[in-house]
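Dear colleague,

Thank you for sharing your sequence with our group. We've completed the structure prediction you requested, and as agreed, I am returning the results in plain text so they can be pasted directly into your records. Please verify that the sequence below matches your submission; if there's any discrepancy, let me know and we will rerun it promptly.
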Amino acid sequence: MHNNAGIRRLIFVLSIAFLFLASGSGSAQETTDSEAEVSNLKAFPAAGPQLARILEQGVIRIGLQRNYKPFHLESTEYPGIDVEIAKALAQSLGVQVEYHYGDVAQLIAMVNAEPGSGASIDIALGGISSGLVRARYVVFSDPYMITTPAALLNRQMLPPESGTEDFPRRKIESLADLRFLPRLTIGVKAGTVNERLLRSDAIFEKHTVQPFADREELLQALIDGDVDALVADEVRIRAIVIQNRQLLSRFSTLTNVYREEHISMALHPGDPAFLNYVNFFIKELHRTGKLSRLREVYLENGEWAD
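Please find the predicted C-alpha cells below.
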C-alpha cells in the first residue's frame, strides 16, 4: 500500500515536471522562430506611396540641421542624437540614408514638397519642435524627446542675497522666473518657437527680445555681455554648457520645466502607413532604452565634447 502510494506520488511529480519543461521548451522555440514565422510574408503589405517608394529605391531621404549640437555633430564617433536615430530608422526599414540639410523652415518646406520630387525629403528630424502652425504643412510623429524652453542667464541679473532668513533670495530656476527680474535683453534664435513664445507670452513683455540669425553669434553675444540671457530649448542649453563648462562661473542655467516642448519627426501627410510605422519605431526606441542611452551620452556624460 505504502509503496504503491509512493510510486503514484513520484509519477505525479515527474508528470508535472515534464509538462513544465515542455512548456518552457515551447516558449523558447516560439521566441526563436519569431522571424521564421513571418519569413514567407510580404513586408509592409499596406505601404502607401511614400513608404513603397522608399522600399523600392532602397533609400530614405532624411533632413537635419547641420552642426546643431547635440542633434548633429561633425564627428564619426559621436555623430549626434538625430543622426543615430536616422541610422536606426533606415536600418529598421532595410534601406540606406541620404542626408539633406537646412534650417527648420527649409526642412518643413522640403517635407511639404511633392513626395519623390527633387526638392523633397521623406522625413525631417533636426531637433524640430512640433506646433499647430507647422502642423498646417506637415504631420508630426509622436515625440522622441520632451524638452522645455530654458535659458542661460548672466548671474549679475540674479536678485541680491537677503540679509535675513525671513526673506531668502527668490530662486530663479525656470524661464517663467524671468518675470521677477528687472528689464532684460534676451537673445534668441530668429524664427524659432522660442522667439514666438517670448513675443507672445505676457510675462516677458517688459523684456527686450533680440533675435539672432546664427546660434554661434547668439552665444557670443551672451559671452560679450550684449544680451543678459540666451533662450533655447533645454537640450541646446545643456549642450552649450557641456561644450563650455567655464560658462557656469558667469551664467546660471534655467532648465526647470516652463512648459513641455515635443521634439518630433516631420513627415508629408500623404502616407498614414508610413506615419504609423515611424510612431511604432519611436515607441521601440523608448521601450528598448536606446533613447535613454542617447540622452546619457549626449546630455549627461558629454564625452562628445572632450
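Summary note from our side: The longest strand covers residues 59-64.

Kind regards,
the structure core
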